[in-house]
Design goal:
Arc Repressor Mutant, subunit A, Four Helix Bundle (Hemerythrin (Met), subunit A)
């Protein structure tokens, strides 16, 4: 059985039964889907142990059953299932959603950076995960800057500042944000420029100082999680802007 599909079923079971044990989850899976087969138990074990390492699950069911194979959803795990951020714990599913939102346009480097960021986040090092995600943000701003330059040249606008800005830099991102806000774009896009692009810029500023030197971000786990939840929509927005500038 596909691991992503199996993980989705596990999340569905945990929503209904937040205090359970490994064998009960397997029994629930057999009742929930006909696709689950005997050899899938190894994949199920991988998923459950990953969720334990990631802090979604913790050992124990109640005061009488404090050890494995009994498990329960943590407070963090409960929030993940309630607000949809459980997707962050499924790297394959997360990248699939990113590609769906961008109509398959998220490039290989962006995809790779996101996968690396998720891998680091799920290993428990959320500050370092921001460094990888910020690399993807730098690429998106560079694509936007190039689109602004090309459209500006067509329209006879001054583009020297953007052309001379160092690529993949905070300065380039700031200039791109400012330039976008002053282009004759559809009103629905203009209203979203500041909130969407400022979020991406904040991601970069967490990873680099204003002079471009690297810095070690220090977000909380929830702050890092929020960056991941916002990123697919922000990424899609950049491509919508590029389309609007090109047309």
């Amino acid at each position: 059985m596909d691991k992503t599909a199996l993980r989705d079923h596990v999340f569905e079971i945990l929503r209904k039964t937040p205090q359970t044990h490994f064998h009960a989850i397997e029994n629930d899976l057999r009742r929930l889907t006909d696709d689950y087969e005997r050899h899938d138990v190894l994949t199920l074990q991988e998923i459950l142990w990953e969720l334990l390492v990631q802090g979604v699950l913790a050992p124990g069911k109640n005061s009488l059953n404090l050890n494995l194979p009994f498990v329960h959803l943590t407070e963090y795990g409960t929030r993940c299932l309630e607000d949809g951020s459980a997707l962050v714990h499924d790297p394959q599913g997360y990248v699939a959603e990113l590609l769906a939102k961008t109509d398959g346009r998220a490039g290989e480097f962006v995809q790779h950076s996101v996968r690396e960021a998720l891998t680091v986040f799920l290993s428990g090092s959320w500050p370092s995960s921001i460094l990888h995600l910020a690399r993807a943000a730098e690429v998106l701003f560079d694509l936007l800057a190039q689109a602004l330059v090309h459209s500006g040249l067509r329209e006879g606008r001054g583009t020297k500042r953007l052309e001379n800005a160092h690529r993949f830099s905070i300065h380039q991102a700031q200039l791109a944000l400012q330039a976008t806000a002053h282009r004759p774009l559809p009103q629905d896009l203009l209203e979203r420029v500041e909130p969407q692009l400022s979020g991406l810029l904040a991601l970069m500023q967490g990873a680099r100082d204003s002079d471009g030197s690297p810095r070690q971000p220090r977000p909380s786990k929830d702050q890092a999680l929020a960056y991941f939840l916002l990123f697919p929509e922000q990424c899609a927005f950049v491509y919508h802007l590029i389309d609007a500038l090109e047309t």
